[in-house]
Specification:
There is one protein chain. By secondary structure, the protein is an alpha/beta fold. It has a single domain (4-341), classed as Homocysteine-binding-like domain (TIM Barrel). 49% of the residues lie in helices and 13% in strands. The protein has 13 helices and ten strands. It has helices at residues 9-20, 31-36, 49-53, 55-68, 82-87, 92-116, 132-136, 152-167, 182-194, 219-227, 245-255, 285-299, 312-341; strands spanning 24-25, 72-74, 124-129, 173-179, 201-205, 232-238, 260-263, 269-271, 276-278, 301-304. An eight-stranded parallel beta sheet has the order 1-10-7-6-5-4-3-2. Helix 9 links the parallel strand 4 and strand 5. The longest helix is centred in the C-terminal third of the chain and has 30 residues, at 312-341. The radius of gyration is 19 Å and the shape is globular. It starts with 8 loop residues before the first helix and ends with a helix. It binds methionine and zinc ion. Methionine (MET) binds at residues 29-31, 47, 74, 78, 128, 177-178, 239, 307-308.
């Protein structure tokens, strides 16, 4: 899909949301779902390891999320980088092919899903780009602390080729996920501009206090960088406990009128050193969807999904809550028109 046919970036998400009935459902945790299916992701490539070892599982998880009601599926490229594949002994060409493969599998899953259905629910494929910290695989995607030696230029050079490849892979948009600091947001924005990337993107940040992004940079500053980049069609928060989301949505809404995307994790915290998820806030799928979605919608969010340790059940619950709301809006309309007729 992309922006072909002269479609304006500014209307990309609003047109999509309209087709979805006002609100869109994203998928849920991807890497953690691969693990639930038995994949061993204790590897610097994390979920991208499955692009090599078990592409069928990647397709399976995409299909599970489509079955659960997702309107956006996010590729397994979060931790897929040319540098990371090269470190594993792949050639540059092989590394690029693996990046493309992440998108091809998601597109294939959408085709399989469409073939099963009578009607075509709108589904976008978002090519995931994880942060430099995710590539480092040392927990710095949750500290946002890259040290003084890492500059906006370093980050642009790190991401450049990968972003170019994903932009030309057939994906509908790029999802810059779990962005831990301001310099990386700046690097993404400058890269999109300099490279003339012609598919839209969303910028999504993570927070561990509900006020700032994980580095301590202000969410308002980060969201403002996203707001001023013309290729950015949505701004939001992912991989953050749901109890922090409401405040963050309100802060983002103050600095942008772009659609807001929200996909919290299960509320557990990832310990980058032990590579374990610890402590659960006890968020249960049904509760998670029922209680919070309404509040986040009121605060201004319009795309909802889940991040790490959420599952197709979470997405099914979100999808149900949103479609109940859509149908109640439709019922109200129907009542209104029958009253007018009387
Ligand atoms: C650490 S956040 C990971 C985001 C990625 N889309 C996933 O669900 O695997
Ligand atoms: Zn996550």
């Amino acid at each position: 899909m992309g922006l072909g046919g002269g479609q304006e970036t500014s209307s990309f998400v609003s047109d999509f949301l309209e087709k979805c009935g006002g609100y869109a459902v994203l998928d849920g945790g991807f890497a953690t779902e691969l693990e639930r299916h038995g994949a061993d992701l204790n590897d610097p490539l994390w979920s991208a390891k499955c692009l090599i070892s078990s592409p069928h599982l990647v397709r399976r998880v995409h299909l599970d999320y489509l079955d659960a009601g997702a309107n956006v599926i996010i590729t397994a490229s979060y931790q897929a980088t040319i540098q990371g594949f090269e470190a594993k002994g792949f050639s540059k060409e092989e590394a690029k092919a693996l990046l493309r493969k992440s998108v091809e599998i998601a597109i294939e899953a959408r085709e399989i899903y469409y073939d099963k259905l009578q009607s075509r629910r709108p589904v976008l494929v978002a090519a995931s780009v994880g942060s430099y910290g995710a590539y480092l695989a040392d927990g710095s995607e949750y500290s946002g602390n890259y040290g003084d030696a890492v500059t906006v230029e370093t980050l642009k050079d790190f991401h450049r080729e990968r972003v170019q490849i994903l932009a030309n892979s057939g994906a509908d948009l790029i999802a810059f996920e779990t962005t831990p600091n301001k310099i990386e947001a700046k690097a993404y924005a400058e890269l999109l501009e300099e490279e003339g990337i012609d598919i839209p993107a969303w910028f999504s940040f993570n927070s561990k206090d509900g006020i700032n992004v994980v580095s301590g940079d202000s969410i308002s500053e980060c969201a403002s960088i996203a707001d001023s980049c013309k290729q950015v069609v949505a701004v939001g928060i992912n991989c953050t406990p749901s109890r922090f989301i409401h405040g963050l949505v309100s802060s983002i809404r103050k600095v942008t009128s772009k659609p807001i995307v929200i996909y919290p994790n299960s509320g557990e915290t990832y310990d980058g050193l032990t590579k374990q998820w610890v402590q659960s806030s006890g968020a249960v799928d049904e509760e998670f969807a029922d209680i919070v979605i309404g509040k986040w919608r009121e605060a201004g969010a319009s795309l909802f999904g889940g991040c790490c340790r959420t599952t197709p059940n979470t997405i099914r619950a979100i999808s149900r809550v949103l479609s109940n709301n859509k149908s109640s809006a439709i019922n109200e309309d129907a009542q209104m028109s029958s009253k007018t007729e009387m």
